[in-house]
TrEMBL record:
Residues 1-50 have a biased composition (Gly residues). Residues 131-183 form the PKD domain. Transmembrane segments: none annotated. It comes from Lacisediminihabitans changchengi. It comes from the Bacteria. This is PKD domain-containing protein. InterPro entries: Ig-like_fold, PKD_dom, PKD_dom_sf. GO terms for biological process: carbohydrate metabolic process. Residues 1-69 are annotated as: Disordered.
Length: 235
């Protein structure tokens, strides 16, 4: 007659064989209890202190931001961020001043240059540098001009009055015209006197309006100039 208990076999003759956690066996009939033996493996691996120590980041240079591992990159500054920095408007001018001769060139030009405005940006003291880049004229007669130069006076260009210039315009009909100028301005910013960092896009800045009258001019020969003889023909 035989039976089994657990993982071991029971012999009715008094002998019990069993397996324990180790590899030993025991004989119940002889009164000896087998003690199992086993080996516990020790794994080898790297702990928290193992590995290569990262090198520190290089010092920042003007115009650059050093970001430590795990930090988020800073958000780029936009034109909306500098809305509290107001650029100076250019001044629109013309010659002759306030009037035009039909069929002849009228010279238009802008007065204004690169400039710096100080203030606070993202909670820090900062400077913003504005630079004019394009000039958009609307002459009031349906004509427009988009130019990269601001122009200058006839005298500065050393040419005669009514000579053509890169910024001049000819009016073809008599009337009163309103001339407008819009200047595209680029922007850069910096903190603590560092390098200038450009901001994407440009700002349109309106200049003053000019109102002028176009008419015809006739040449009349006189015997004396009008200062000496103001009642003479053509004076």
């Amino acid at each position: 007659m035989s039976g089994s208990v657990g993982n071991g076999g029971v012999d009715l003759s008094g002998t019990q064989n069993g397996s324990g956690p180790g590899s030993g066996s025991g004989n119940a009939g002889s009164g000896n209890t087998g003690a199992g033996s086993g080996n516990s493996g020790n794994g080898a691996g790297g702990g928290p202190g193992s590995g290569t120590i990262p090198k520190p980041p290089p010092p920042p240079r003007d115009g650059y931001t050093v970001t430590m591992p795990g930090e988020e990159l800073p958000t780029a500054v936009t034109l909306a961020d500098i809305r509290s920095f107001v650029p100076h408007a250019a001044v629109a001018r013309m010659e002759p001043n306030g009037w035009m001769v039909i069929g002849l060139h009228t010279n238009f030009y802008a007065v204004g240059s690169q400039h710096i405005v100080d203030g606070e940006l993202l909670g820090r003291p900062a400077s913003v540098r504005f630079t004019p880049s394009a000039y958009h004229w609307a002459y009031g007669d349906g004509s427009t001009a988009n130019l990269s130069t601001k122009g200058s006076t006839w005298a500065a260009q050393r040419i005669a009055e009514f000579d053509p210039t890169p910024t001049s315009h000819i009016f073809r009909a008599a009337g009163t015209y309103t001339i407008t100028l819009t200047v595209d301005v680029g922007a850069e910013y910096r903190f603590d006197g560092g390098g200038w960092i450009p901001i994407a896009g440009t700002l349109p800045v309106a200049a003053n309006q000019l109102v002028a009258t176009a008419g015809r001019a006739d040449t009349v020969l006189v015997g004396r100039d009008c200062l000496a003889h103001p009642s003479g023909p053509g004076c």
